[in-house]
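Researcher: Hi, I'm a grad student and pretty new to this. My advisor asked me to get structures for two proteins we've been looking at. I'm not sure of the right format, so I'll just paste the first sequence and hope you can take it from there.
Model: That works fine. Here's the first sequence with its structure tokens right after it:
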Amino acid sequence: MLNKRLQFIGFDKALKICSILIFFILSGCPHNTIQHRTPLTFSKTLSESVTTDYREYGGFSIWINCNERLAKATYTYIEADKDSYNRSQTKNYYLDNRFNTNCNQLSSKTYQKTLGDSRKLPPHKHFDVGHLVNKNHLDYSQRYIDESMVMGNMHPQVRLFNQRKGAWYYTEKLVECLRQISPLHVWAGVIIGNSDADDYFVNSHGVKTPSYSWKLIHRTDINKIQIFVMPNSHTSIAENIDSYVIGYADFVLMLEDSFVRELVSRYEKISADINTWVVEGHNTLMCEGIVTSIK
């Protein structure tokens, strides 16, 4: 039967049809092949009952839940191999009064000043002003680095979690290394949770201390995502990073805001890799045979 059909439509046409069929078989469904090799754009209208303040800066965007005065989602697009500068911020932490001031934190002072000298306190009371969008990911522009110091990009972050041995620091190193391989879409945010035991900054800054921080990394070279949800704790260390990698469905269940679920819903059909993407080193980094450095 097949030979008769080939004779009827002609060999050239049959070959073309076969080629098209093979392409679709290998490619899979169209929504699994969209790789977004340019920055995403967003609508300011989100389906959320709480007041949500969308703020766009150079190189990154943030969405603040104004009831909590914290960014529940941030986004930055990082081009491949765009890491050839050595810059640091020239601006201190600041409040951005160009936007809805009712959504701002109450202070741009460090969180630790509220608690006092960390040398006299236990590790769970050592807090950094934690970036959601890391300033080093924006090191191709001095203005972008300085803008990342806005308090809307900050949250109370336990110091050991944020610094060299911490799980959050691991994800920052991972982005720095993977950017040498592929364009990246990087999302991050916080989950407040139900505990108020560590809400030390409600009076000083108007914010609760998040129980968790999350990060979603989309690699466009392999069109896969990896999602980390990590406790904001001094026990949240890089050695435990494997236990913080979760699938998309579990991730969405943990999110507190419907507008965040709406923002990340674009990744529902993209494969979530649950095998931890590995980065080694500190100042000099290595991932998948690529060697780079944090400048």
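Researcher: Oh nice, that was easy. Here's the second one.
Model: And its structure:
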Amino acid sequence: MIAEAEPDRRRCLVVWAAARMLERKPSRQTHIASVVSPNMGRHEDGFRGLYHDLLAANDTHERSRLLEDAQEPGRRQLDALAALRAREPVPARREDRQRRDNEQVARSWQLYALSRVSDYLLELGCPPGELDHGWTGGRRLAPHELQLHTAFLSGLGLERCTHTGGFSPFHHEIFAVVQDDTLDEVVLEDVLWSGFRFGALLFARAGVRVRAPATLVDQQVATTSTLFFTFRRQPRRTEDASQGWGHNSQWRTRFSRFYADAEGFHLNWDGSVDLAPTRPRRRQAIPRGSQS
């Protein structure tokens, strides 16, 4: 009797386990999404849904329509993330700090989803090919696709940030290099697409062409090395914190926060190691489980 009952018991366990896996569990992400993510696109998942809709679009005209339809709900969603516009003060009490961190993490997931939309539009705007002027590592510009990127982010209310006063690695992503060994500095030659900021928070760097000697900028390294804190920019390699996580868990990735304010530049604000001029020290980290 025991031998005959064992298969039924195993089947019950499998069904129970499958039910647990499919169970919709309440989470901070679900709660925040219901507050700050109005319906946008067929997926009704805010910027995440828009990203998937864009991937399925057949051409530039369809992408343009999707982006136009997404602007009004996107502005409302971005307004709900206003707490990310500036570096938050650190509360004195540990419990207050933890509550603030949890709230900021949930907002950051939403901004990360928008950054994927931005990355995809930039990828379409920089397809494989060659540029007439400057070394790009095998990419060219698609002006109409880049115009969609600029128009959409501007329409959401993000502020354009080109920083034309000179080359700045904080504000600029090098797209093309003109090697000139007669120079002794890096010269900003042209801004090829606009950068954007959300208050003091850098959202996307501007794409630029620079002129520089090989001793300061190696054209191969500057245009083909891995772009960190970036989800996609094919054919260039990229790496961000979502890689290696599952289909849903990867969307609980925090947007990498880089601030420029009256006190200077603040790089990777949520990083776990403080790289200030004093001896580096590890910050109190938020467990990955709170965002994955």
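Researcher: Is there anything I should tell my advisor about the second?
Model: You could mention this: The chain has one domain: 27-290.
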